[in-house]
From TrEMBL:
Its EC number is 3.2.1.23. InterPro entries: Beta-gal/glucu_dom_sf, Ig-like_fold, LacZ_4. The gene is ebgA_4. GO terms for molecular function: beta-galactosidase activity. Residues 2-58 form the Beta-galactosidase domain. It comes from Escherichia coli. This is Cryptic beta-D-galactosidase subunit alpha. It is an enzyme of class 3 (hydrolase). Transmembrane segments: none annotated. Keywords: Glycosidase, Hydrolase.
Length: 75
């Protein structure tokens, strides 16, 4: 597996069980199979995890030369 690009985006003021738009620019893709992998982490420490611990993941197939990802709901 090869990583084509990485981005770190900080969403602010997103309430639990709500939605927020997320603009992502994908690199140029060729005909090979590709996925957009999203990991959600929490900035602060909690009683059950350290800061930066992954709390959600999403993998979306990226088809064709360029495709926008579907909505991602925060919990």
């Amino acid at each position: 597996m090869k990583t084509l690009a990485t981005q770190q985006i900080k969403l602010r003021d997103v309430a639990p069980n709500s939605e927020a738009p997320l603009q992502i620019t994908l690199p140029q893709l060729d005909a090979r199979e590709a996925f957009l992998n999203i990991t959600v982490t929490k900035d602060s420490r909690t009683r059950y995890s350290e800061a930066g611990h992954p709390i959600a993941t999403l993998s979306v197939p990226a088809e064709g030369k360029h495709r926008a990802a579907s909505a991602f709901r925060t919990k």
